[in-house]
Design goal:
alpha/beta, Rossmann fold, four-stranded parallel β-sheet, Aspartate/glutamate racemase family protein, Asp_race, isomerase, Asp/Glu_race
Length: 247
């Protein structure tokens, strides 16, 4: 009898997650990865269908807000670089970091290992271009604005960031999420800040802080919006499952 060959699916590639900034946002990323696989399933799922993640949940990374806004406290870069090396040693084949502000230190991560770094900022700018956005309402930490984390990526796509005239309320909201305040009570504040961004001329809202990703249910209806954490999820899915269409 002629022999038959079975084509095995491409092996999953594990992604290392630099997490803990904050812890709940890292868990949300993991949940989004689970949901992304489920959304592309054509039949019943088993454990082995899901993406292998090696998660370094390190809430002890020095405060990015203290360092970048207040100009005090230790530098997060050496801690992040060591986390990257730890993930590489654990078997990760790529790195991802669910914290927009911490992408200020992306070059330190790239220098720490030879692993590809799945850049959430660039992926987000690419998605906004595909969505035909133009003026981007930035729902982000003031540290993201002060360090220009998104500036180069947005400018390369001809996108214009629209910042609130006073981003102190955004920082207060981010801190409230980190403090564990009930999200239901914080939702009206999120909706109001979105409204201010639209008033300033934004035609597309960008959730550019993964703490605020926990409040996307409060985004106003009728205004296009993107969550950078979704863009990172898509990158992770695409890398981990070569040959399988991602979300």
């Amino acid at each position: 009898m002629p022999s038959t060959s079975v084509v095995e699916p491409a092996a999953m590639r594990p992604v290392g997650i630099l997490g803990g900034m904050g812890p709940e946002a890292t868990i949300l990323l993991m949940q989004k990865c689970l949901a992304a696989v489920a959304s592309t399933a054509t039949g019943p799922l088993d454990d082995a269908d899901h993406i292998p993640l090696i998660v370094h949940q390190n809430p002890q990374v020095p405060s990015r807000i203290a360092r970048l806004i207040e100009g005090q406290g230790p530098d997060p870069a050496p801690v992040l670089a060591q986390m990257a090396r730890d993930l590489a040693a654990a078997g990760a084949q790529a790195l991802a970091m669910p914290c927009n502000t911490a992408h200020h230190y992306a070059d330190s991560l790239r220098a720490a290992t030879a692993l590809p770094f799945l850049d959430m900022i660039t992926a987000t700018a690419d998605h906004l271009t595909q969505a035909r956005a133009r003026r981007i309402g930035m729902l982000a930490s003031p540290a993201t604005r002060l360090t220009g984390v998104f500036d180069r990526a947005l400018a390369a796509q001809g996108l214009v960031p629209v910042w609130l005239s006073d981003d102190a309320p955004l920082l207060d909201l981010i801190r409230a999420v980190k403090a564990g305040q009930p999200l239901s009570g914080l939702a009206p504040r999120m909706t109001a800040l979105c409204g201010l961004a639209v008033t300033r001329g934004a035609d597309h809202l960008l959730v550019a802080c993964t703490e605020l990703s926990l409040l996307t249910d409060a985004l106003p209806e009728g205004v296009p919006a993107t969550d950078s954490l979704d863009c990172l999820t898509s990158q992770i899915v695409a890398f981990a499952r070569p040959g399988v269409s991602s979300c």
